[in-house]
Amino acid sequence: MExxxxxxxxxxxxxEWQVESMAMGEFELIRNFFSSLGIGRDDVTLGVGDxxxxxxxxxxxxxxxxxxxxxxxxxxxxxxxxxxxxxxxxAVNLSxxxxxGAEPAxxxxxxxxxxxxxQWLAEFSRGMGELAVCHGVALVGGDxxxxxxxxxxxxxxxxxxxxxxxxxxxxxxxxxxxxxTLGDAGLALCDQLSKTPEKPTFPELIRRLxxxxxxxxxxxxxxxxxxxxIDISDGLLADLGHILEASGxxxxxxxxxxxxxxxxxxxxxxxxDWSIPLASGDDYELCFTLPPGMATxxxxxxxSLQLSMTRIGEIGLEPGLRCWLDRDTLWKPQDSGYLHFYAxx
Length: 345
Ligand SMILES: [Mg+2]
Known about the structure:
The structure is a single chain. The protein folds into two domains: 12-160, CATH 3.30.1330.10; 167-338, Phosphoribosyl-aminoimidazole Synthetase, Chain A, domain 2. By secondary structure, it is of the alpha+beta class. Helix 3 (82-100) packs parallel to helix 7 and helix 7 (216-222) runs antiparallel to helix 11. 35% of the residues lie in helices and 23% in strands. Bound molecules: magnesium ion (MG).
């Protein structure tokens, strides 16, 4: 792990390249934005500022580790609000920790920048810091270089040993649930890309796209009784497909049960296409399976977290994922890009 921000401790070739392309004053400036991002934690013996961070994992806990990259032009528009980008880069990683039921603790950041823009960096670090403080995590190290804008974060969290929520735990007879609503971010992105002035994007949908709320508390609460879980980053079909594949089971999903916001419901009605809530991704809700008989307990958790948890289907023995429009009619996807796990009748 390279844990020094903008200091030249890299191999000579890269060091020379960095010094050549960014003045040392700029390195110091950038370092200022990130040297104390997030909260101070007792388990960080040494954070940003040396070759490595020194961290302590509590006794009896396992370390959950995840990493995600966001690339300009691939995962976000180059002119996106930098505060939202900083927020989201951390949020997608915390969402992966949430999917395992882990409690976020630390993260490292690798930042590739086309130039050193003070205002952009101030906003980017502010957005990232907001979420870091909100979830009690600390930035403990990182690296930077010059190049096309790319943000890579590795996040670490704690789990009681042996209690992680895995993709492989679903059983025949389990019920399939999802938190929140599906397709909001996908619809916001469609609206942004189509840029039709007569069709303004709802502010709430933009918030769902740019500032997704990682379901950390839900993941932690579900850890004790859900049989499997995943976060919906690539769309319900793809991500539930990962659970089915890892668990060696199939599922039936009832489209009329999907939790949808009014704009997504309207978009489905006008386009006659369910791919927005099923396949557009970026939802960062949790899809999980639950042994039958847990509905009352789940209701209590949903109420205490003020987060909806909706039953959308069942796990079955027959392999594949079937989406039902009604009792007798199977939905046929129009886009074959996400059909990898879709069952053909
Ligand atoms: Mg994930």
